[in-house]
Each structure stands twice: as C-alpha cells, then as structure tokens.
Amino acid sequence: MTAAIVPRWEWRTFGDDFGVAEDRFGRLEPERVEESDEVYLLSVGGGDTVKVRDGDLDVKHLEQVNEDGLEQWLPVLKVAFPLEVTEVGSLLAGLRAGVSPLTRVTYTLEELLDEVVRPSGDLLAVDVHKGRRRYAIDGCRAELTDVRTGSMATRTIAVESEDPDRVLATVRKLGLEALPNVNVPRGLKALLGFGTRSAVVDVGTNSVKFLLAERTPDGKWRSVDDRAEVTRLGEGLQETGRLEPEPMARTVDAIAAMVEEARGSGAVAIALVGTAGLRIAPNSGEFVDAVEARCGVRVEIITGEEEGKLAYLAVKSALGFARGSLVVFDTGGGSSQFTFGHGESVDERFSVNVGAARFTDQFGLHGPVSDGVLTAALEAMAADLERLDGRPAPDRLVGMGGAVTTLAAVMHELATYDPRVVQGTVLERAEVDRQIELYRTRTADERRRIVGLQPKRAEVILAGACIVRTVMAKLERESLTASDRGLRHGLLVERFG
After folding, report:
1. CA-closest candidate to residue 388, choices 334, 438, 329, 430
2. CA 413 → CA 216, 328, 450, 475, 481, distances in Å?
3. Do the domain assignments include residue 2?
4. Quick one: 273 and 315 in the same domain?
5. Which CATH number fits the domain that encloses residue 459?
6. Residue in 397, 338, 353, 378 with CA at minimum distance from that of residue 462
7. Closest C-alpha among 244, 206, 229, 441 to residue 335
8. Same domain flag for 249 and 387
9. Does 257 fall in a domain?
C-alpha cells in the first residue's frame, strides 16, 4: 500500500549571512550532510517547483499561502526520463509557460532542454550545486544550504513541517521572522536576474498608478500589469489644506489591493512613492502611517526634482531621442514636473504646483464653463508656469501623465485603452484645442460617454488639457509626443536595475 502524500508547510529565505541563526545551527549536530547536482526549470510565469535530480523529474505544486506567509507545497510528480508527451504538457502547464507545439511522443532530458526549454523566452534551465546540512528542530525539518550556479553563489535556510504553527515557531526561535519567505524558484531567479518580478506604486494627487514587471532572459523588463486607479486623494485639499478622511481611505484601499496583487504574483520587491499631494498636505504622515499599517510597506514621499528625473529616465529608456534638446513634462493632479536635457544629459529639473485637481476645484472645471471662466483658468495656469517663459523651443517635447495619455486615447477613439497605441502618439496643438472645447461644453456625465475617456477622469480632464495646452504655448511647440511610460517606469529602472 502506497503511503499518502502529505503537503508540507515551508518557510525559506536566501542571503549571504544569517547571523545568529547560523550560530544556532552551528551548535547542533546535523542529521545528514550531502552534496547534489540538480537542474531547475525556472519560468517567468512562476508556478510549480521543477527540478531534475539523479535522472528523475521532481515537481511540487504550491497549494496555498496562509495569513503568516507560509507556503504549503505538495509533491505532484516524480518520474524518470524519458517523459511521456502528456507529462511534458502537464509540466509546462504547471510552469505557466508558452512554448512551441510538442512534436515527440517521449522526451529525454536533453531533448526537453534543447527543443522545449532553451528556445522558449519564458523558461530557463539552471545547473545548481547544493551543499546541504539537514537538522531536526522542534519537530520540524530544517536545512542550511550553500547554493552555487555557475559563478554565482548564495545560501538558503529552510524550515518545513506538516504543522504551520511549528514552522512559524521554529522560524521565530531562529530569529529569522523579519526576513522574507522566498521559495527556491524565486530565490534562483533573483540570484540570476531572470523573471524576477518587482512592483512600483505611484501615489498621486488624482490617481494611484501600479506597475508589476518582470525580468526577461535578455535583462529587459516586461510589464505584467500596468494600470491606474483614480482615487482623488487630493479631493478637498485646495479648500481645507489637508487630506480628507474619505479620499485617504479609498486611496489606502486601492494601494492595499495593488500590494496584495504584487505579492500574490511573486514580486520580490515593492516600491511605494508619493508625489505632490503628499508633499503639500501637513497631515500626509497620517496617510503614510495608515498605508504602512495596512500593507507593511511605507510610502516614500519624493521631491519634485526626483519626479522630473524619473520621468526623464522613463522617456529615454522607452523612446530614445538620442540627439537634440528635449523637454519632458509630467502633469498630475497636484503638480507638474519639468526636465530639460540634451541627449543623455539632464540640464535642469524643477516642479511647480500646477495640477489638474487644484484647478478643477478652483475654477469649477468639472462641468460646463463659460469662455470667460476658461480664459481665467488658462491665465492662472500661465501665471503659475512662468518658469517656462523666455526659454527656447526644444527640438522635442514629450508629455506624460493621465491628462496627456487621455488626450491621446480620445484622439484615437480607444474604447479599450491600449498603451502600445498611446506610446509615441503625436498630439498637435489643434487637437488639444478641439478636446478642450469638447470638454468645456459638457457635464462630467456627458464627458464619460466620450470614447477613449476613462470615466473617473471626467471631472479633471478639462483642467489637464488646459495645462497641456499652456505648456505647449509657453515652449512654442505645435506638437508633443505622448509617453505612456511615467514615473513608475523610471523608478523601476532606477531602483531595480
């Protein structure tokens, strides 16, 4: 009678030195010391743990993750090569990998690697040498392992048991509870820079932007999810000078959902940054504390100059523009950032408190307005953008942020937003003028029926379009290039390489 396969709860972390924990292991007699050579199959899509050892394929499936972050893994396959084609298909499904059609009835290990794994951009085969010391601690299995692949090396500590409470207690006893739980595939991908997922959350005055991306084998970033949610954190800020409870609460909810998605998708690092609204509000600390209490991640409030630098980095990495003068501006709900440069060099960066949320509230631009009110709003924007006066027209002007991308989406009549269409779109000044008139004569509900306009931007789009129009006029440009890449994309490159 075959014994039932029992899933085990596992905690594991990677690093170079585990301090006190290693000292405690050093005082114990290992039950077993062993060396092994294995091949791990890694996937950018995550999924099962797959390795080959002593000619056998070994697959474990992640059953669940509990509230303490422990992972429950179930062995689902252990079979010798050659593999049946159905077993290869099941293997690939577990790795969430897209590959070419399978053409063989059976596969040796060499055939699997040469014909299926290596031609796929989603998969990577990694030769791993392990030096393990295994222990028994308070009813748990534990190991301290040296890991080497090629010229790269790391260490890992693991604790596992059928009882999650025992695992957690042992982790705490070893003094490791502050370290992240990282399974073997994620640890190897982080070591190699392959398929490593990272997330950025950009908390703006009007919207919260979320970018989840992963490393590909060629070292580039591939977007997994890239979206924005309009929460209007700065609603009422113009009148009261403070962040109000309801906008804060809905923004915290949005951030918590994004952080949960990032963690559930295997992100090994998450960066949260806040911009103009949080710089301005005297009670922004309350909001930062609320986010940290809810998500365990602290929002870093960055300067306007830092915003400008990150925006420029995002444009350069996506659009190039190697020659000539370039101005990149990013207009949001509470401020606008400007970066002036030539090629790779940044000459000047600054931020001004000119944002769509503020002017919407100040001039009632959320609905129909008269020509006189519109003129007054444009004049106020021009006054606040006086730092642009007298500058030579740049060779290229690039705009980013919700207002610019919405103008591009409306121009293309995108019923479903497509960043590939928006990216690089050329917006003529006449098109911006056309849309300003379109929004000026409509209520917010009527604007929501315009194809390409994100419904939650209906209230602020007129102010955003007017800011874009004013920037173009000040810099004497008849057109600009829209960039769907923004602060979050620059932050991804800067923080995570």
Report:
1. 329
2. 32, 25, 8, 27, 17
3. no
4. no
5. 3.30.420.150
6. 378
7. 206
8. no
9. yes
Q: What is the DSSP string of 173-228?
A: HTT-TTS----HHHHHHHHHTSS-EEEEEEE-SSEEEEEEEEE-TTS-EEEEEEEE
What 8-state DSSP symbol labels residue 70? -
Assess whether 255 and 330 both reside in one domain: no
Greater pLDDT, 218 or 153: 153
> By C-alpha distance, which of 187, 157, 186 is closest to 266?
186
Instruction: Report how far apart the first and last C-alpha atoms of the chain are (Å, whole number).
Output: 53
For the stretch 143-169, pLDDT in tens is 999 999 988 899 999 999 999 999 999
Task: Please check the confidence at residue 1 and state whether its pLDDT lies above 50.
Answer: no
For residues 361 and 476, membership in a common domain is answered with yes
Number of domains present in the structure of the chain:
3
3-state secondary structure of 337: strand
pLDDT bucket at 254, cuts 50 / 70 / 90: very high
Tokens for 19? 């301090």
Q: Which domain holds residue 23?
A: 8-192
Q: What's the whole-number average pLDDT of the chain?
A: 90
- Tell me which DSSP letter residue 149 carries: E
Residues in the chain, how many? 497
